[in-house]
Design a protein that fits this description.
- With 132 residues, this protein is mostly helical.
- The chain is 46% helix and 3% strand.
- It has a two-stranded antiparallel sheet with strand order 1-2.
């Protein structure tokens, strides 16, 4: 189901109003608020809610429950920078599945840290790497 008019509660007239208001995809509809849709398509609360729920049911938005995120975070790895002091400052090393931002003046060692992490990730876990 990829067309707006195929959604339950959306007829040709509402589909045209939605498209002219910029709602040209199911994803855009799925993240819309009831108020936005009421104004854009000139429909009531019940119809707007029904259309939004139908769009959300038609697309996989990738939402996760907080409990699922917390469970996944229990299995994160940490890559040692090679410096125990720096590892301590950044919470145990560079966290996998995340972003580590390093900034500083020219020549301050930003690239050196990046290259060191590229080497260290290949070390076995007992040496601060991920074995890969």
């Amino acid at each position: 189901m990829t067309e707006l008019k195929d959604l339950e509660g959306v007829g040709p007239a509402i589909a045209e109003k939605l498209q002219s208001a910029g709602y040209d995809s199911l994803e855009r509809l799925a993240v819309a608020t009831t108020g936005e849709l009421m104004e854009a398509a000139e429909v009531g609360t019940r119809v707007a809610t029904k259309v939004i729920n139908a769009a959300r049911g038609s697309v996989n938005m990738g939402y996760e429950k907080a409990s699922e995120v917390m469970e996944r975070r229990k299995h994160l790895g940490y890559i040692s920078t090679g410096s125990p002091a720096l590892d301590k400052i950044i919470g145990g090393g560079a966290e996998t599945q995340g972003i580590v931002e390093v900034f500083g003046e020219f020549g301050s060692g930003k690239s050196q840290i990046a290259h060191q992490l590229c080497v260290n990730v290949q070390l076995p876990p007992e040496q601060g790497g991920l074995g890969g």
